[in-house]
Amino acid sequence: MEAKTEESSNEYAADISSIKEAQERISAYVYKTPVLCSETLDSISGRNLYFKCECFQKGGAFKFRGACNAVFSLTDDEAANGVVTHSSGNHAAALSLAAKIRGIPAHIVVPKNAPKCKVENVVRYGGQVIWSEATLQSREEVARKVLEDTGAVLIHPYNDARIISGQGTISLELLEQIPQIDTIIVPISGGGLISGIALAAKSLNPAIRIFAAEPKGADDAARSKEEGAIVILPETNTIADGLRASLGTLTWPVVRDLVDGVIVVEDKEIIEATRLCYETLKVAVEPSGAIGLAAVLSESFRNNPVWKDCKNVGIVLSGGNLDLDVLWESLKNRI
């Protein structure tokens, strides 16, 4: 396990102004996603839960917000040669779709172990798939070669101010839809989603609490908060394939300063939460997207007296792109 020391800073990659600008920029393209409630889940959790359904967003995930903001932030000259990224998941499809809407090429470097359903989405939205090995080093090397060959603009999945600002538009919508929310629980991976949400929400309501939900098999954010520096795990192991990235240099300061805690859950809890989303909310959510419900139902959250006053909880259902074969096998085996 490796830790990177970071200097404390009050300067963040995005702020409420850039997030409001992003909302205006992308409003014609993104869905204002609904908020669902369930008396059954309220009773189980002992709280009022409000599910922000980004699984209903274009592309099936919140990632379209950031990708759309990044693509439409480009000047015509910058956009002429298209965009490039490396991603194994929803960002790849989101960037492909945003580029398609703008009418520019999208070069997507995809590791060979990417979920089949997410690769199919890239192709469906017109992205050009360039394969790499599964390692981050291979992904970055192939992306660098594509950049050299095409002159395209790199759009990082999360360590990008435009991406963070786009994801922050979720807070603007959620707090308009449900003003009484006092807590938001957000899946965490590279940190782009929670950074944008925290920056917007804390600006609108400084007393609001922001919690990250993270799988035990990829708990680098929890360890980073404990260490006070970015921790990079040598390997990850979780069914939540969208939550395996490490924090970035732009997202870490926000997570360090504005995220009130990290709730770590086991894969079996994520699987159970995914099942509850299907059976109770009647919503198809991928494991990475269901982890917020797993967190609010976890013993560590429910029994912590410090958090007993978190009564009106917003939960971001971040995506619904899942490999059903993997989910059914997991349900059958009850990991």
Fill in the keyword field for this structure.
335 residues; alpha/beta; Rossmann fold; 2 domains; six-stranded mixed sheet; four-stranded parallel sheet; 15 helices; 12 strands; 16% strand; globular; disordered N terminus; TrpB-like_PALP_sf
Word description of this protein:
This protein is an alpha/beta fold. It has 2 domains: 2-62 and 160-333, Rossmann fold; 63-154, Rossmann fold (3-Layer(aba) Sandwich). The chain is built from 15 helices and 12 strands. The strands form 3 sheets. The protein has a 6-stranded mixed beta sheet with strand order 2-3-12-8-9-11, with helices on both faces. The chain has a 4-stranded parallel beta sheet with strand order 6-5-4-7, sandwiched between helices. The two termini are 25 Å apart. InterPro entries: Ser/Thr_deHydtase_PyrdxlP-BS, TrpB-like_PALP, TrpB-like_PALP_sf. Keywords: Lyase, Magnesium, Pyridoxal phosphate, S-nitrosylation. Catalyzes the synthesis of D-serine from L-serine. Has dehydratase activity towards both L-serine and D-serine. Residues 27-319 form the Tryptophan synthase beta chain-like PALP domain.
The CATH topology annotation of the largest domain reads as Rossmann fold
Distance N to C terminus: 25 Å
CATH C-level name of the largest domain: Alpha Beta
Mean pLDDT over the full residue set: 92
Order of strands, widest sheet: 2-3-12-8-9-11
Count of β-strands: 12
Q: Structural class per helix/strand content?
A: alpha/beta
Helix count, DSSP H or I runs of 4 or more residues: 15
Q: Please identify, by name, the CATH architecture of the largest domain.
A: 3-Layer(aba) Sandwich
